[in-house]
Design goal:
The complex is a heterodimer of chains A (369) and B (431). With 369 residues, chain A is of the alpha+beta class. Chain A has helices at residues 7-18, 71-80, 131-141, 197-206, 264-275, 325-334; strands at residues 2-6, 32-38, 41-47, 51-58, 60-63, 65-70, 85-90, 95-100, 103-108, 125-130, 156-162, 165-171, 175-182, 191-196, 212-217, 221-227, 233-239, 258-263, 285-290, 293-300, 304-311, 319-323, 339-344, 351-354, 359-363. Chain A folds into 3 domains: 2-114, DNA Polymerase III, Chain A, domain 2 (Roll); 126-249, DNA Polymerase III, Chain A, domain 2 (Roll); 252-363, DNA Polymerase III, subunit A, domain 2 (DNA Polymerase III, Chain A, domain 2, Roll), CATH 3.10.150. Chain A has 6 helices and 25 strands. Among the domains of chain B are: 15-79, MutS, DNA mismatch repair protein, domain I (3-Layer(aba) Sandwich); 173-232, DNA polymerase, domain 1; 248-402, Dna Ligase, domain 1. The chains are: A alpha+beta (369), B alpha+beta (431).
Chain lengths: 369, 431
C-alpha cells in the first residue's frame, strides 16, 4: 500500500471510526484500524465485534493494499503533524511509514488478513431518509434508554417501520419517550427492531444536518450508510438486540384530565435549580399546580430545600405530583420548542409531556409513602 | 471571632461490669467481672477497676480470672439491661447539649461550643462536666469518664488520659497536651500508619507537629494534613451528627447448645437470613454478595460465599443461594454446629418506586414488607412470619429461641432508639 492523503481527510476518517475502539479489547487486533486503499479512496474500518464503523475518504493511491495499524497511535501522530500532506507506505513486514514534511514515523501493525471480516449485506430491506430527521428523532428518544443490563431488551431504541411511519421508542420502565415521523417505507421493508445503545451513541455522534442516510436491515443486523454532499460516506453496521420489546402502547394514557402549558426553558431552568437540593435518598421534586401558579419544591433532610414558583396559564383543579427531576430535565433539554404541555390524570398516574409535534413522553410519578 | 469548639467525649467506666453493679448494689466495692460466651463463663468481656487490680483483663478466660481473683464475682451478661441503662445514660446527657453523637453503647460526644458565654459564666467547664458525671452516677448508677477538647479526636484522647475522672484541655493548650502522647492512641492509627509515621521519626504528636505539613500531605493525603493540624493544636472540628450509609449487614449467632442436627442448623440459618433480608429491604437496600460461615464445636470453621449476577432482595432467591452454600460446605462435615455467621454486602439501592408497566417485584415486596411491619408493630413481633421463621419456632418449642445477642450496639441502632428512625427515604417528611 502506498498513498498520499490530505491531513484533514485522514483526521476526519479516523475521528469517525476510532470512538468504537475501546481501550480494553477482547482481541488485540481490535485496537487497530483497518486501512484499505482502493481507487483514489482510503477506507478506514474499526469494530468491537458488535458495532463496526467504516469511513471512506479521498486519497491519492499509488499502490493498492490493506493494513491494520493501532488506531490511538496513528491518530495521535496524524493530529500533531505540521504538514497538510501525508504520505503513507506499508512494507512487507506490516510496518507503516508516515512521511509529512520533515517528520518521519514508522508504526508496526498487523496484517489486514487477520482483521475480522465485516458482514456483507445481501439483498435486504431498506429505507432512505434525511440524516437531519434521523438525528432529531434519536435525540428526542435516546436519553430514555435503560442502562440496567438485567433488562437487555430495553438497552436500545425500538424502531418500528409501519405504514409510512417511522416510530422510535426508548424506555427504562419508569419513563418512555416516543417520536414518529412520516418516512417513505416500501411495502417490503416494513419491520420492527431494537438498535443497541452503543450504535445509537455512535449515530448521535456521526449524523450531520446534511445529506441522506440509507438504512438496511436483516433479521439480526442493521447497516446505515451516511452520505454527505461531497460524496464521502460513513457506514455503520450493528447487531440488533434480540428479544421482544414490551408493548409500549399500553402505557400511554389514552385520556388525561388536566393540560398545563409551560414555557420550556423557564420550566427547565427551575427544575435544574431545584434538582440541586435533591439527594440520593430524596430524589424527587414536587410540582404543586394551582390556579395560574406552579410551585416546584425539593427537600432533602441532609441538604436543604428549594422552592421555585412560576406563573402559568391553568384553570383546572389543584394537584400535587412528584417526579424524579432527571426524568423531566432530560426530555426538556432534548427538545427545542418554546412551549411544552404537561398532561396529568392524578398524582399516582403517569404524566405525559407533549409538544406541538410528533413527540410524546410518558413519565411515572414517584410515590410519597 | 468564631469561638473555639468545645467537644466533650464521655465513656462509661468498665461499662458492663458497672451495669452489673448498678443492677445489684450488693456488688459495690467488690471485684466484678462479666463473662461472655454461651453460658456466660467463656471469656471476660468486662471487669471493674477492683478486679483489674487483681490482674483480671478483658479477653482472658473466666477460669484464669478466677485463679487470679478468687473472691471476684463472675456475672452472666444481661445485654438487654445494659442497653436500657445505656439509653438512660444518654437520655440524661442529651439534656446538656444541642448536639449529641452516640458512638457505641457506652460512648458518645456532646457539643459544648459557646457554653462559656452563659452556662459556664459562674462555674468552670471542668466542674460543669464533673457535675454531669455525678448526676449520671447518682441517677443511673454508672460511673463515667470524660474529656473536653477542641475536636472529637482530642476529646477522646483526653478521656483516655482522664480515666477515671474528667479532664479539660483548655483552648490554646492542645499542643502541649498532645506533645508527649504516642500517636497510636488516636483512633485511626493502627499498625500500618504507626509504622509509616515511625519511619518519619514520629512517635508522638509532638514529633508529628515538627514535620513539614507538605510531607504529611504527600504521605497520607488529606488525613495527613488533618493529623498535622491536630498535632499543632489547630484542628478545630465541629461535631457533625451523621449516620454513614450501610455497607454491609451481618449476623453472628452462637446456638444455645451445640447442634448435631444439620437440618435444624439450616432452619436457623434460613430464618436468620430472612430477618437480615427484611432489614435490608427496610433500609431500601439490596445485596449482591452473601457469605455463610459455620463454626463447629471444636472451633474449626467452614464457609463459602456467593456473588449474584445482580443485587438481590427477595427471600426466596437469597435463601436458595444460602441453602446451597450450606449444603456445599456441610457435605463432608460431621461435627456439631456451634456458631452460624451470615453476611451480606456489596449493597445497592432498592428502587421501590412504581413503573409504567405492571408492578415490579421490588414494588410488591416493598408493599409486603410495609404491611408485615405494620401488623407486627400492631400485634407484636412475629405475628406474621415466613415459613423459615415458623419452622424455627416449631423446632425451638422444646428449647428457647437463641436470641440475636450482640454486645456491640451499632451507632445506627443507638440513634434510632433515642430519636426514632431518621432519614427514611421517600418519607412524607421530605415535603
Amino acid at each position: 500500500m502506498n498513498l498520499s492523503i490530505a491531513k484533514d481527510q485522514l483526521i476526519h476518517g479516523l475521528q469517525s471510526v476510532q470512538n468504537i475502539v475501546s481501550s480494553r479489547t477482547t482481541l488485540p487486533i481490535l485496537s487497530n484500524v483497518l486501512l484499505r486503499a482502493t481507487d483514489n479512496r482510503l477506507e478506514l474500518t474499526a469494530t468491537d465485534l458488535d458495532v463496526s464503523i467504516s469511513c471512506a475518504v479521498e486519497a491519492n493511491v499509488k499502490k493498492q493494499g490493506a493494513i491494520t495499524v493501532p488506531v490511538r497511535k496513528l491518530f495521535g501522530i496524524v493530529r500533531e503533524l505540521a504538514s497538510p500532506e501525508i504520505e503513507m507506505e506499508v512494507d512487507e513486514k506490516n510496518a507503516t511509514s508516515i512521511r509529512a514534511g520533515a517528520s518521519f514515523y514508522k508504526i508496526l501493525g498487523l496484517s489486514a488478513d487477520e482483521y475480522p471480516p465485516i458482514q456483507k449485506f445481501k439483498e435486504s430491506k431498506k429505507i432512505v431518509l434525511p440524516q437531519e430527521k434521523l438525528k432529531g428523532m434519536l435525540k428526542k428518544t435516546s436519553f430514555a434508554i435503560s442502562s440496567d443490563e438485567s433488562r437487555y431488551v430495553l438497552n436500545g431504541i425500538f424502531i418500528s417501520l409501519k405504514e409510512h411511519k417511522m416510530t422510535m421508542v426508548a424506555t427504562d420502565g419508569r419513563r418512555l419517550a416516543l417520536v414518529d415521523e412520516e418516512v417513505d417505507i416500501p411495502e417490503s421493508s416494513q419491520s420492527e427492531f431494537i438498535v443497541p445503545t452503543k450504535a445509537v451513541n455512535e449515530l448521535n455522534r456521526l449524523l450531520t444536518d446534511k445529506g441522506d442516510v440509507e438504512i438496511k436491515f436483516t433479521e439480526n443486523q442493521l447497516a446505515l450508510t451516511l452520505t454527505n454532499e461531497k460524496g464521502g460516506s460513513v457506514l455503520v453496521i450493528s447487531k440488533l438486540v434480540e428479544g421482544n420489546y414490551p408493548n409500549y402502547r399500553q402505557v400511554i394514557p389514552s385520556e388525561t384530565k388536566e393540560r398545563i402549558s409551560l414555557p420550556r426553558e423557564e420550566f427547565l431552568a427551575a427544575l435544574r435549580r431545584a434538582q440541586i437540593m435533591t439527594s440520593d435518598k430524596a430524589n424527587s421534586v414536587k410540582l404543586a399546580i394551582g390556579r395560574n401558579n406552579l410551585a416546584i419544591t425539593a427537600n432533602s433532610p441532609e441538604v436543604g430545600e428549594a422552592r421555585e414558583t412560576m406563573a402559568i396559564d391553568y384553570k383546572g383543579k389543584d394537584m400535587a405530583i412528584a417526579f424524579n427531576p432527571a426524568y423531566m430535565i432530560e426530555p426538556l433539554s432534548a427538545l427545542t420548542d418554546d412551549e411544552v404541555f404537561l398532561e396529568l390524570i392524578d398524582e399516582l398516574s403517569p404524566g405525559v409531556l407533549k409538544i406541538n409535534g410528533p413527540f410524546l413522553y410518558v413519565v411515572m410519578p414517584m410515590r410519597l409513602s | 471571632m468564631k469561638p473555639a469548639n468545645r467537644i466533650l467525649h464521655v465513656d462509661g467506666d468498665s461499662f458492663f461490669a458497672s451495669c452489673e453493679i448498678a443492677l445489684d448494689r450488693k456488688l459495690e466495692g467488690r471485684p466484678v467481672y462479666v463473662g461472655g460466651g454461651r453460658n456466660g463463663n467463656g471469656i471476660v468481656i468486662a471487669a471493674n477497676r477492683i478486679a483489674k487490680k487483681f490482674g483480671v483483663k478483658t479477653g482472658m478466660a473466666c477460669f484464669e480470672a478466677k485463679n487470679l481473683c478468687p473472691k471476684g464475682v463472675l456475672c452472666k451478661p444481661h445485654y438487654d439491661e445494659y442497653r436500657r441503662l445505656s439509653l438512660d445514660m444518654f437520655r440524661i446527657l442529651e439534656q446538656y447539649a444541642p448536639v449529641m453523637l452516640p458512638t457505641s453503647i457506652d460512648e458518645g460526644f456532646l457539643d459544648f461550643t459557646t457554653m462559656d458565654q452563659h452556662v459556664w459564666r459562674n462555674t468552670t467547664p471542668l466542674d460543669y462536666i464533673k457535675g454531669i458525671g455525678e448526676r449520671v452516677r447518682k441517677e443511673v448508677g454508672l460511673p463515667m469518664s470524660g474529656g473536653l477538647g477542641s475536636s472529637s479526636w482530642l476529646a477522646k484522647l483526653a478521656t483516655d488520659a482522664a480515666k477515671p475522672g474528667f479532664i479539660e484541655v483548655p483552648a490554646g493548650q492542645e499542643e502541649e497536651f498532645l506533645r508527649d502522647r504516642p500517636v497510636r492512641e488516636l483512633s485511626g492509627i493502627a499498625k500500618n500508619r504507626e509504622r509509616s509515621l515511625a519511619a518519619l521519626g514520629a512517635k508522638t504528636f509532638g514529633d508529628v507537629a515538627k514535620l513539614p505539613s507538605m510531607l504529611m500531605k504527600q504521605k497520607f493525603g488529606i488525613w495527613g494534613q488533618q493529623l498535622w493540624l491536630f498535632s499543632n493544636g489547630r484542628w478545630n472540628q465541629p461535631l457533625v451528627l451523621e449516620v454513614k450509609d450501610r455497607t454491609t449487614i451481618s449476623s453472628n449467632t452462637t446456638l444455645p447448645y451445640d447442634e448435631p442436627d444439620y437440618e435444624a442448623a439450616l432452619t436457623f440459618t434460613l430464618s436468620e437470613a430472612t430477618r437480615l433480608t427484611g432489614q435490608l429491604r427496610h433500609e431500601h437496600l439490596q445485596a449482591r454478595e452473601i457469605s455463610l460461615t459455620i463454626r463447629f464445636n471444636d472451633f474449626t470453621e467452614v464457609g463459602g460465599s456467593h456473588r449474584f449476577q445482580h443485587a438481590q432482595f427477595q427471600n426466596s432467591v437469597i435463601n436458595r443461594a444460602l441453602e446451597e452454600l450450606f449444603r456445599d460446605c456441610m457435605s463432608a462435615a460431621y461435627k456439631p454446629v456451634r456458631q452460624i455467621r451470615i453476611a451480606m454486602w456489596n449493597l445497592a439501592r432498592l428502587d421501590t418506586q412504581p413503573t409504567l408497566w405492571q408492578r415490579t417485584e421490588e414494588e410488591r415486596w416493598g408493599a409486603l414488607d410495609e404491611a408485615t411491619h405494620k401488623l407486627n408493630t400492631a400485634f407484636g413481633k412475629l405475628s406474621v412470619m415466613t415459613g423459615a421463621q415458623l419452622a424455627l419456632q416449631k423446632l425451638d418449642d422444646a428449647h428457647k429461641t437463641p436470641k440475636a445477642k450482640c454486645p456491640f450496639v451499632p451507632q445506627r441502632e443507638m440513634m434510632e432508639k433515642l430519636w426514632g428512625p431518621t432519614g427514611t427515604p421517600n418519607s412524607d417528611s421530605a415535603f
